[in-house]
Amino acid sequence: MTEALFQRDGDLYLPTPACGSPWSPGQLHGGPVVGLMAHAVEQASDNMDLHLSRLTVDLLRAVPNAPLTVTTRLVRGGKRLQILEASLFAGEAEVTRASALFLENRPVTVPEQGQFQPTELEPPSWPVEASIAEAGGWQNRYSPVGLHSTAKAVVIEGVDGGGQGVAWLKLPLPLVQGVETSPTVMAATLCDFGNGVGQLNLSSELGCINTDVTLYLHRSPVGEWLGLDARSRMQDTGVGLVETTLFDCQGPVGKILQAIITMKAPG
């Protein structure tokens, strides 16, 4: 039984089958990759009073199902602001690069017009066995094993290739075996599903794949379920954008932005 998305062996992160991509059995899903970048910068940050407020991940090339290493670098340190960079390597090849912004949390009084509005959606309160692939009807088109068959989901609306969707998602496994997954790392791992929840199919054979992920968090998520409200739009140049609101049972927690290009759908 798979116990985590990654196992740790010294400096190596070893992907388990739960990391698999729907696009190819030899590649990793973007979610575990983004989550691993969040884990790396969170571990590297030396100021526990700062909050991960923005994570930008460039998916430079397909990440292979192979042992991986991560390096981090402090770009700017400070009491109220910190910037770190991280690079993911498969062998000597850099496959992913990330930049993280940490900001200080300080209590303030916010006028009503400047507050984030609460959500009216209640998270699932019953056991859910359906994966995001099953909930979205993807299981017969995509590679059978991966994050898309591991993450649990309840679809509220859409998620049918029409360019929009609302769904609750849950990560049932830790990112790294033996390490507690923080709320921000959980959010980073699930945020790549913005393109899946809001997937835009241009035809029965042509869909969209994202080349990056930028996650903004104005607070840490609460609870084990995260909601995604995703919308995809594309120009006739074949370049588009997925915009996703991320929320929990208490209301919005952040935004996800993903640049997309066309891709032949699997299956």
Short structural summary:
By secondary structure, the protein is mainly beta. It is 13% helix and 40% strand.
Please, could you describe this protein's structure?
- The chain is mostly beta strands.
- It is built from 5 helices and 13 strands.
- It has helices spanning 30-44, 132-135, 147-150, 183-191, 194-197; strands at residues 6-9, 12-15, 50-59, 69-76, 81-90, 93-104, 152-158, 164-170, 206-210, 212-217, 225-234, 239-248, 251-264.
- Strands 3, 4, 5, 6, 7, 8, 9, 10, 11, 12 and 13 form an 11-stranded antiparallel beta sheet that branches. A two-stranded antiparallel ribbon has the order 1-2.
- The protein is globular, with a radius of gyration of 18 Å.
The total of beta strands comes to 13
Using only CA atoms, what is the Rg? 18 Å
Number of helices: 5
Q: What do the pLDDT scores average to?
A: 92
Query: Can you give the helix content as a percent range?
Result: 10-25%
Output the helix-strand order. Answer: EEHEEEEHHEEHHEEEEE
Terminal Cα span: 27 Å
Percent strand: 35-45%
Structural class: mainly beta
The biggest sheet amounts to: 11 strands, antiparallel
Shape: globular
- Uncertain runs are none
What are the key terms here?
eleven-stranded antiparallel β-sheet, globular, single chain, two-stranded antiparallel sheet, 5 helices, 267 residues, 13 strands, mainly beta
Topology:
Elements: E1 6-9, E2 12-15, H1 30-44, E3 50-59, E4 69-76, E5 81-90, E6 93-104, H2 132-135, H3 147-150, E7 152-158, E8 164-170, H4 183-191, H5 194-197, E9 206-210, E10 212-217, E11 225-234, E12 239-248, E13 251-264
Antiparallel strand pairs: 1-2, 3-6, 3-10, 4-5, 5-6, 7-8, 8-11, 9-13, 10-13, 11-12, 12-13
Helix pairs in contact: 1-4
